[in-house]
Specification:
Length: 407
């Protein structure tokens, strides 16, 4: 290598080091600011929001409500980036390994195993949520853990989902609201039931309900992942899923690739049940003309999973201040209410209504969620928590081996 080339390489190396150091200093300064000064820095910024893009209603709500509101209120331009959170985590890991101090994503819709992995790989900015004013509108006991993993100020709650089954009441008079009843229905109606194949989020959630049932509930799993306990208690799950395969859609020879495909099967009448982690999503689809007005939802008597989803900021987000302001807006009473409306999305609020003003609280309580949405108190009575994400990872991996690719 020539002397001039070596000199140039040294200069580039020093410049890169200084850039990283400067960025780190800017982050420290940002975390030392109060929120009004953060908001001031955010004006004129751009936020590239990485989020799952599989639901047209959610995409439309972000584009038609969040985007213009952020522009009008804070002069922040939000760009929705349709992608999977796992893919974003993989990208961030590659960028960290490559030393990229300026990434391409400012905000991520994330939770569960993806958040746990991102934290363990040191891929997120923070802790910053103590600076976010609207966090005070939530119950800290509810939002301090994400599927058993401590949040520690690295992600901000955004919404709450509870698993429900969807059915057409004009076709089915009494839905099977227990695992035992569902099992009988599946066997009595071959080809009319299926579930999305994991790692699809909804499909993986469905098999967790079966795991709870065959292993005596969720309580033994809340203290963290226990490999021995999992292996001991999961065998019955795989035995059962193999046993019902001949009674599933297409005799279990294939599964819907994701929830979107199951949506289509249900809408076309090829199966009699759909499933969703959005409690009022069915009403939204009725209002959109995709579902007949007779569609209703139900939960299992022993309970269905409830989880909170979050937003987080990557370690190398180029517009961290704007991302903080955007995430604070997503947690505002106005945005949470708009998201709560079934025609917009139907995602339940993560706010503690007792912490809102009387007018704000009344607004949420008086919203008509439609006949397809179960009452809030019924959902609450049949809510069970998510267990640590390591169990989810294990079940997804084992489902592929035990069900999809078994010999």
């Amino acid at each position: 290598m020539k002397r001039s080339e070596r000199y140039r390489l040294v200069l580039l190396t020093v410049a890169a080091f200084l850039l990283i150091a400067c960025t780190a200093q800017q982050e420290v300064n940002l975390l030392e600011l109060d929120y009004p000064r953060i908001e001031q820095q955010a004006r004129g910024g751009e936020v590239r929001f990485a989020m799952w893009g599989g639901d047209a209603r959610i995409n439309r709500w972000v584009d038609s409500y969040v985007v213009p509101e952020l522009q009008q209120r804070y002069d922040i331009r939000l760009l929705r980036v349709s992608t999977d959170a796992a893919q974003v985590v993989n990208r961030l890991l590659s960028e960290r390994q490559a030393g990229r101090s300026r990434g391409s994503i400012d905000l991520i819709w994330i939770n569960g195993e993806n958040f746990r992995r991102a934290r363990r790989e040191d891929l997120l900015f923070g802790p910053y949520t103590h600076l976010i004013p609207n966090l005070e509108l939530t119950d800290p006991e509810e939002v301090s853990y994400d599927w058993g993993f401590p949040v520690d100020g690295y992600e901000l709650p955004w919404g709450r989902g509870q698993f429900v089954f969807e059915y057409d009441s004009a076709i089915i008079n009494q839905p099977p609201d227990s695992i035992e009843a569902l099992d009988r229905w599946i066997r009595d109606n071959p080809g009319r039931f299926t579930y999305p194949q994991p790692p699809d989020f909804t499909g993986a959630a469905f098999i967790r309900h079966l795991f709870y049932y065959f292993s005596g509930g969720y309580r033994d799993y809340l203290d963290g992942f226990d490999q021995r306990l999992y292996q001991q208690n999961s065998a019955a799950l795989w035995d059962y899923l193999r046993e019902i395969e001949p009674y599933l859609w297409r005799e279990g020879q294939t599964y819907p690739a994701d929830k979107a495909q199951l949506d289509v099967l249900f809408e076309n009448g090829e199966v009699d049940f759909n499933m969703s982690y959005t409690q009022s999503g069915a009403q939204g689809l009725i209002d959109a003309g995709r579902y007949p007005s007779s569609v209703r939802t139900f939960v299992l008597q022993r309970g269905t999973l409830t989880g909170i989803h979050f937003t987080a900021i990557p370690f190398n987000a180029p517009n961290k201040a704007a991302a903080m302001v955007a995430s604070n807006f997503l947690l505002s009473a106005d945005a949470q209410y708009s998201k709560f409306v079934p025609q917009n999305w139907g995602d339940f609020t993560v706010l503690d209504l007792d912490r809102l003003s009387e007018a704000q609280r009344r607004r949420f309580l008086e919203l008509d969620l439609g006949p397809a949405t179960l009452p809030v108190d019924v959902l609450a009575q049949h809510s069970v928590p998510e267990i640590p994400a390591e169990y989810v990872d294990a079940m997804v991996e084992d489902w592929e081996r035990e069900i999809l690719r078994r010999e």
